[in-house]
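Hey, quick one: can you model this chain's 3D structure?
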Amino acid sequence: MRARWDLTVLFQEGLRLNLGNALFNDYRRRLRFEGGEVALVAGEAPDPRLEGNGSRWLVVDDLLGAELLDDAAEPWTVRTFPQRNATDMSAWYAVLCRPLHSGPRQFPGGAIVQQSCVRMVANPAEGDWRSGGACHWETDDRAGQEPAPRLRVRMAGMDGITYRIIADWGARVVEVIPGG
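Sure thing. Here's the predicted structure for all 180 residues.
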């Protein structure tokens, strides 16, 4: 996301995972990341190793993997709550964000405010499920038109095939090219 003019951002969230933490999982989540493995227990403060963790990937209970393909190197922010916090106080959940910025931040016109690129994987294998992929953001400056972002992603699929994904906001087209 690029600022069209000078901008003050008061609150910014990138990827946000709301992790339910209730009876169905014994009030605890197992999180793996580059810095190790921790338990996220309902109603308790998060493990310090998770707070501010700069890992490019995170796995929740071996059920969901999130791999950040951008070069932002932002740390994860974890918010937990001492009491049930879901609608009608029915369950606990924790919030994991990357990036999360609270408080005013100034951006001049034309500056990049946020560029996030995330690969989500269901049931990631214990082995190396990460793709080593990369995102490249471009601006398509077509004559006489507003600049439109274009995202190019190259990554290995779970099937062993390398894919190119090109998303062009100006043309409103997403291409997936196997073997790219």
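One thing worth noting: The chain has two domains: 1-128, 131-180.
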